[in-house]
Amino acid sequence: MASQSAPRPDTQRSSQLSETSTLHRKGSEDLEKDAEKDGEVTDENEDADVERQQPSQAAGKEDENDQDPNVVGWDGPDDKLNPMNWNPKRKWAIAVCMGMMTLVVTFASSVLSSAVQPLSKEFHVGTEVVTLSTALFVLGFAFGPIVWGPFSELFGRKTPLFVGYIIFAIFQIPVAVAQNLQTIMICRFFGGFFASAPLAIVGGALADFFDPINRGVAMSIFGASTFCGPALGPITGGFITMSHLGWRWTQWITLIMAALFGSIGFIVIPETFAPVLLQRKAKKLRYQTRNWALHAPADEKEVNLHEIAEKYLLRPFKMLLLEPILVLVTIYIALIYGLIYGFFEAFPVSFQMERGWNLGVGALPFLSVLIGVIIGCLLIALISKTRLKRVMEQESHIVPEERLIPMIIGGGILPIGLFWFGWTSFPSITPWPQIIAAAPIGMGLMMVFLQGLNYLIDVYKMNANSAIAANTLFRSWVGAGFPLFATQMFKNLGVPWAMSLLGFLCLALFPVPIVYFIYGARIRKLSKFSPE
Predict the structure, then answer these.
(1) Is the per-residue pLDDT at 506 higher than 50?
(2) Where does the Major facilitator superfamily (MFS) profile domain start and stop, copy by copy (predicted)?
(3) DSSP output for 82-139
(4) How far apart are alpha carbons 467 and 323 in whole angstroms?
(5) pTM for this one?
(6) Which of 248, 272, 296 finishes a domain?
């Protein structure tokens, strides 16, 4: 009789599951109320519906959660805590703040390029030596992602983003008060190293809460910041350097900008990485439910240094050796990146040395580059919202080769702009044709660079971090090298032929996106790193 009164094991198990489920729902409701207070509730609009249809970053965990009630996941596809379901206005505010932080660090990379002559006179060295201040900053960009990429996967996006950004801002101070060139060079390198945090993290963060269509538009903001910063640097730096403030105030202005946009960003930008958000959700539920067995999927994985080293150190080099898509697109993007920083030396030769303009006015043609970059961004956004969206609806998944259409357009416009700029650079010709030519250059640079990166992300998917790490490392080396020889190249060859040489290099790489647009799907099937 005693055995008849004892509860059956399956009944007891069912009771435990029911109790745990009830506690989960109660805890989740409390979390959702907190989310509503933070303005993270999704609006009922078309964009939100599209994003809700996209697989969340916790996809595939639902079955696991059914098997183990102690594993914390999203409460269905409409969970308000899921970054994919955040309010679209909030998403775009986050994207803009991230873009402004990126603009500040890229602005810092070029702002000292206008102070080459004053620095050369003050420290009694050649102009080529002073040019190292720009090259070393860009070289810091190359090594930073090796650190910030893994950190963003271990600790989430926000912590490493702001740690790197704050230390970058601090490194502006020793440069501003430096009494010798060695201090400037060392601090510029480490400033670039820490400044690379936004460059390494923002792209992944945008993918945390945007679907592929809107991610293309958001990436155009990120790409515009990457290009607008270097274009604004010489203009601002030129006028500051020639004023009574002097070159040291280029660094104080950078520090002020970093503090302003960093403070706004710290308030607006939340954590966006789904595994970390689920860990926080599990932690809160443990205290609310007193069920200490609750945990997130990420808690089941141990930190594996070998896996991190493989992903960010070894695999990028393997992919550069074995992946034809990555190799050629990386070479193309590296040339584009080198052109950006090479122009910091080309424009002074053409407008200051040959046309006799002063530091500030001589940098104003960079505004034309800026206009071209903005036009390129708008075209990318337009194509993403029309053709790319239509193809995705038809195929029910993203087709990577569709990203190449703007890249092909930009690749055709870029050499035209380079030849146009070069052969209208004679002082006997009015400067306006040459200034106007900088716009298609900016447009072409933007469209090739940004869509090349988007294409790599879509091709390699879960291996995209390794592909982007390889791309960043190689392009930063090239970007650091260009300023070192650009001045001598433009002086010795002359602006027309130097620009023509760069134009021919761009023409040589122009077929790359065309070939991949036609044969990319076949090539991807042969890849070891591109999942089907």
Answers:
(1) yes
(2) 94-532
(3) SGGGS-HHHHHHHHHHHHHHHHHHHHHHHGGGGGHHHHHHHHT--HHHHTHHHHHHHH
(4) 10
(5) 0.83
(6) 272
